[in-house]
Amino acid sequence: MKKATAIVFSPTKSTLKIANLVLNRLGLPVETIDITPYKNRSFSYDFKTEDITVFAVPVYGGRVPKPAMETIKNIKGNYTPAILVAVYGNRAYDDALLELKNILVENGFVPIAAGAFVAKHSIMKIAKGRPNNEDIAEIEFFADKALDSIQGEKIEKISPVDVPGNFPYVEPGGKTPTPLTNKDCIKCGACSRFCPVGAISKKSPNKTDYELCIGCMACIKICPNKARHLDKEKLKPVKNKFKEMYAEPRAPECFYI
Description:
- It is a single chain.
- The protein has about 260 residues and is of the alpha/beta class.
- It folds into 2 domains: about 5-170 and about 250-255, Rossmann fold (3-Layer(aba) Sandwich), CATH 3.40.50.360; about 180-230, Alpha-Beta Plaits (2-Layer Sandwich), CATH 3.30.70.20.
- It has 7 helices and 10 strands.
- The chain has helices at about 15-25, 65-70, 95-105, 135-150, 190-195, 220, 230-245, and strands at about 5-10, 30-35, 45, 50-60, 75, 80-90, 110-120, 180, 230, 255.
- The strands form 3 sheets. The protein has a 6-stranded mixed sheet, sandwiched between helices.
- Strand 6, helix 3 (about 95-105) and strand 7 (about 110-120) form a beta-alpha-beta unit.
- The radius of gyration is 18 Å and the shape is globular.
- The two termini are about 15 Å apart.
- The model has no long low-confidence stretch (mean pLDDT about 95).
């Protein structure tokens, strides 16, 4: 392998952190392509057999986020080894790894390993502190084993890694709540610049297009004045249910060829 490249969709930076842990463990010259910003997704890319790639996405409703999937469809491989990473907030990753695997195989990649890792939930107060030190050790082991699995092997002869999931894929549940803006908004435009789907007006960044918003929470994370938030009262019943059902910490799950 000559070079390792990570293709990452990460509105709240948790997926980016895990992707870089994998990438930097591979011991190769590295590059990270962040496809989160809207302006970064209008490109196509071709990888070669001697490259190794890391595709890392968060899980939204058990699936790969639509903006990430639409971009990944334009990235082509030529028997290029791919390491798959799905990051979720301790509920479930459902069909995300299978969906990611299928599109990559279709595009000429050979998925050699896949990992589902937990990070702090972007909305609910669960999985706080994840990934922790144990997770990081597991992520590093995962990267080591993924690379070891293809040493001395002809990539053209390798069958893609088996991952859990169902097809047809799970249908996402209800609409994720759209962040609101309070009086502390100074209209700096940071939220508008970083919104992955262009749902926040540049001229009036205190306004959000409900139909476009994917509920990724990037705007809440990036706001320097903590002016963006969710409606706590409307969220309370769901939060309580989440705590009851998904508080038990889930361990990483890794799959190899």
